[in-house]
From TrEMBL:
<keyword id="KW-0378">Hydrolase</keyword>
<keyword id="KW-0540">Nuclease</keyword>
<protein>
    <recommendedName>
        <fullName>Decapping nuclease</fullName>
        <ecNumber>3.6.1.-</ecNumber>
    </recommendedName>
</protein>
<comment type="similarity">
    <text>Belongs to the DXO/Dom3Z family.</text>
</comment>
<dbReference type="GO" id="GO:0003723">
    <property type="term" value="F:RNA binding"/>
</dbReference>
<dbReference type="GO" id="GO:0000956">
    <property type="term" value="P:nuclear-transcribed mRNA catabolic process"/>
</dbReference>
<feature type="domain" description="RAI1-like">
    <location>
        <begin position="75"/>
        <end position="412"/>
    </location>
</feature>
<comment type="function">
    <text>Decapping enzyme for NAD-capped RNAs: specifically hydrolyzes the nicotinamide adenine dinucleotide (NAD) cap from a subset of RNAs by removing the entire NAD moiety from the 5'-end of an NAD-capped RNA.</text>
</comment>
<dbReference type="InterPro" id="IPR039039">
    <property type="entry name" value="RAI1-like_fam"/>
</dbReference>
<dbReference type="Pfam" id="PF08652">
    <property type="entry name" value="RAI1"/>
</dbReference>
<dbReference type="GO" id="GO:0034353">
    <property type="term" value="F:mRNA 5'-diphosphatase activity"/>
</dbReference>
<keyword id="KW-0460">Magnesium</keyword>
<keyword id="KW-0539">Nucleus</keyword>
<keyword id="KW-0479">Metal-binding</keyword>
<dbReference type="GO" id="GO:0000166">
    <property type="term" value="F:nucleotide binding"/>
</dbReference>
<keyword id="KW-0547">Nucleotide-binding</keyword>
<feature type="region of interest" description="Disordered">
    <location>
        <begin position="1"/>
        <end position="58"/>
    </location>
</feature>
């Protein structure tokens, strides 16, 4: 493993912008022209925008070739804070759940099945937490995000979008996703767009019908973290303890994608324990497990499918490396490999018909332009529900006071108090 080689965290962030400045909405389509879409699929409810013909339902294409442009500007992500969730899933505005990476042997022989039956507390993933933890962090750290310096006095935060890193990862991978669709609820509140995922019916069915083998393999990923993470820089991992998936340490980062200012949070597995390691997020390490690779075809599949998700998830918050444990069929980690995020595009470039980072980032940027253009009513009880299924366009519907509303009353109240008098509630 070559993880001790110096890594330039800036190397994977392209700072140039396309000379050929495009119009907004390159991929926007009128789905009435697309025969494969159902008529009136998620019919747009409000009046037509100037660029759209009346009665059309604006949509966003996910066709890859539309996004093969120059890599968009993506600023080096900056950590503006962090928070922890304890064994009972309680929020703390601190780093108490931070863990430290301890380098295992090249052939570690970790038994990932150990403790599954007797030392496992599994988070209830039927509880939909929405954006609540990030919103708690925003309320606790409002002074860091105050927009009083900006001219738009009605803005509560100086950002365009607030969301989870996982939701952005889904957007980045959309042009290459062939199996799972998504639903993203968007609310514009005091000038900022909040994006929260809604579970699709297919995802709920999958969750309800998981096999015992699938449940155990989900545990394996957490168990691998237990073998490779210590509670403080001077201690060793303790794989004899309980694996509790309620616990989490999350980074909160700010960055900019093209013209979109983003604030998002994502769970972090651990950090480099070297005291001279760079400041967060450049010291963070993402941990993964995957089936061992025995054939060139399996290596190619890793590059074409898994590395897309791994790259997107780590590139967004500026995490520089993924450490992977490769396991046999019995759940024993037999080898280790480190993937540097800045080198992944080089690793995949000889794969036939492989994914392209520029397509991922341009699609995400265009989706955000589309959302800004469509989600215009500033009202915490109005939700614009953006919907996508593989091989379809992104469409949306509008919902008032519905089950999709996700900004809690305590947050709306907190962010409105002391605000400007002309806020519309």
């Amino acid at each position: 493993m070559d993880q001790h080689r110096p890594h330039n965290p800036n190397s994977s962030y392209r700072r140039h912008r396309s000379e050929d400045k495009r119009e907004r909405g390159d991929g926007w389509r009128n789905p009435n022209e697309n025969k494969h879409l159902k008529p009136n699929h998620h019919q747009h409810q409000s009046g037509a925008t100037p660029e759209q013909k009346p009665l059309s339902c604006p949509s966003l294409s996910t066709r890859r070739e539309l996004y093969e442009r120059d890599f968009p500007l993506y600023k080096q992500p900056v950590e503006v804070g962090c928070f922890s969730l304890d064994a009972e899933r309680r929020f703390f505005n601190d780093s108490r759940q931070m863990r430290y990476f301890v380098e295992p042997d090249r052939n570690p022989n970790f038994d990932l099945r150990d403790g599954y039956k007797g030392r496992y507390v599994k988070r209830d993933d039927s509880v939909r937490e929405k954006l609540d933890h990030i919103l708690r962090w925003i309320v606790a750290n409002r002074s860091k995000l105050d927009s009083s310096a900006t001219t738009a006095s009605s803005r509560a935060l100086d950002v365009d979008f607030v969301t989870w890193r996982g939701h952005l990862t889904k957007l980045l991978t959309t042009p290459y996703e062939t199996r799972e669709g998504w639903l993203l609820a968007v609310t514009r509140f005091r000038g900022t767009l909040y994006i929260s995922e809604v579970e699709t019916e297919a995802a709920q069915r999958e969750r309800d019908n998981r096999t015992e083998r699938h449940e155990e393999m989900m545990y394996w990923g957490y168990k691998f973290e237990q073998y490779t993470c210590a509670d403080n820089p001077d201690s060793l991992p303790d794989p004899s303890g309980v694996v509790n998936t309620n616990e989490a340490f999350c980074t909160v980062v700010q960055t900019r994608l093209a013209d979109h200012r983003l604030l998002f949070s994502g769970e972090v597995d651990c950090r480099d324990k070297d005291p001279d390691a760079p400041a967060p997020p450049a010291c963070y390490v993402e941990l993964k497990t995957s089936a061992e690779i025995c054939t060139p075809k399996q290596r190619s599949n890793l590059h074409r499918f898994k590395l897309l998700k791994w790259w997107a998830q780590s590139f967004l918050p500026g995490v520089p490396r993924v450490v992977a444990g490769f396991r046999d069929h019995e759940g024993v980690v037999v080898s280790m490999e480190t993937f540097h995020i800045s080198k992944i595009s080089h690793l995949i470039k000889n794969e036939y018909n492989c994914w392209k980072p520029t397509v991922c980032m341009n699609f995400c940027s265009d989706f955000m332009s589309f959302v800004k253009h469509m989600a215009t009513e500033d009202n915490p009880s109005v939700v614009y529900l953006f919907s996508w299924e593989p091989r379809r366009d992104v469409t949306f519907s509008i919902h008032r006071d519905s089950q999709y509303s996700f900004l809690p009353h305590w947050y709306v109240k907190e962010m409105t108090s002391g605000g400007d008098s002309h806020h519309q509630s």
